[in-house]
Amino acid sequence: MRSTDLFLALLNHKKRNLDELKWPGEGTFEVVLGAILVQNTNWKNVEKALNNLKNAGKDSLDGICALENSELATLIKPSGFYNTKAKRLKMLCLAIKNEFGDFENFKENASREWLISVKGVGAETCDAILAYACGKPYMVVDAYALRIMAYFDYTFECYDEAAEWFSSLDYDEIYKFLDSEEFDEVEILKLYHTLILEFCKENFKGKILSQNGQKILSNIKN
Length: 222
Fold this sequence. Notes:
It is a single chain. This protein is mainly α. The chain has helices spanning 3-12, 30-37, 43-55, 61-66, 69-75, 82-100, 103-109, 112-116, 123-132, 143-151, 159-167, 171-175, 185-203, 211-218; strands spanning 204-205, 208-209. Helix 2 (30-37) packs across helix 3. The termini are close together.
């Protein structure tokens, strides 16, 4: 099976318009906040934590850096594991400020090597920030993506191997199926990630794939 085949199968059965498949706050500092806060929780809890930060006027790089860890932990409590996340978020924001000065400079100049070296930033979190905050061509491989591959009895030795497989797309073939000319490599990889999320949320209950989901994936060559 090729990654391109999976992408096209999911694209052909998408339920929403392409412009609706967007990460909340894409291109803004909110993505950095969300990427840390969403660890081991669902997005509804993240939204509550983000609203707390916004209401307190602390939803910016400088705002986070100015908070004590205990104050930050209280604000992000709805996201769970709040003491750990407060430490990780504060450490990341201080590293960004010390290295790049401000968020816009970080967006422009951050590298994967630098970002993943920050304590508490794993590969998935790193790639989510690079893709959705910085607009760089990285594929985010999450538990949903691996669940689809497990259905096909595909396993990967590590995150980077999985990311390499998912990123190995035939763009010329994909462009034949996309109506919009706005999709470059960055946008296609983000779309791929979102299509995976949409498919899995609609068709998986735990590790059990629905009959509709099986039908969608049945025509992909394994």
